[in-house]
């Protein structure tokens, strides 16, 4: 029996350390990339800029990511996972159509506005983010919205409308308004959510007047 002190035990311990190092290195690269993209924008940033923010050797980057595109996609995917959870929690609390729509927009706009680094990333790299909308991790947001709309229709919260059209409309309004919202100073996620909610529920006649 191996008690952890023999050759097998030492090999297992070394393997465990290697796996931990891999996780820590990847985490460090993602954190550095998020900061670089936020400050410089996707277009101006380089792999070298990212690696310089870490204690890793330059060649280590390529053990985890193929290029700048791949690590940017990974950064967006990580953020998308957090946003997906907030969307589902918010829409899941809704007991009316207005709450469903408002929770959807509030989750998205607040998510962008509450973190200065994420807000900077959104301001500098929205065009690059747009190119990732069909990637599996980002598509998960649309799939979840479709699922939640179907569930809300089944429970009577939403009217029985075309799910795909409604989902596309809600997602499109959220993304395009967010591009304008993050460019403003100060950023006002509450006003953005209010505008988007009224637009979705009532059209132009229901929009708040200025």
Instruction: State the order of secondary-structure elements, H for helix, E for strand.
Output: HHHHHHHH
Provide the helix percentage.
Answer: over 70%
Structural class: mainly alpha
CATH topology (level 3) name: Tetracycline Repressor, domain 2
Overall number of strands: 0
Overall morphology: globular
Distance between the termini: 77 Å
Assign the CATH architecture: Orthogonal Bundle
Task: Please identify the oligomeric state.
Answer: single chain
Structure annotation, total helices:
8
Spans of 5+ residues with little confidence (pLDDT < 50)? none
Q: Overall mean pLDDT score?
A: 91
Percent of residues in beta strands?
A: under 5%
Count of distinct structural domains? 1
Structure write-up:
It is a single chain. By secondary structure, this protein is an all-alpha fold. The protein has one domain (7-206): Orthogonal Bundle (Tetracycline Repressor, domain 2), CATH 1.10.357.10. 72% of the residues lie in helices and 0% in strands. It has helices at 7-40, 47-52, 68-93, 97-113, 116-130, 136-154, 163-183, 189-202. α3 packs parallel to α6, α4 (97-113) runs parallel beside α7 (163-183) and α4 (97-113) packs antiparallel against α8 (189-202). The longest helix has 34 residues, at 7-40. It is globular and about 70 Å long. 28% of the residues are buried.
Chain-wise SSE layout:
Elements (H helix, E strand, L loop, with lengths): L6 H34 L6 H6 L15 H26 L3 H17 L2 H15 L5 H19 L8 H21 L5 H14 L8
Helix pairs in contact: 1-3, 1-5, 3-4, 3-6, 4-7, 4-8, 6-7, 7-8
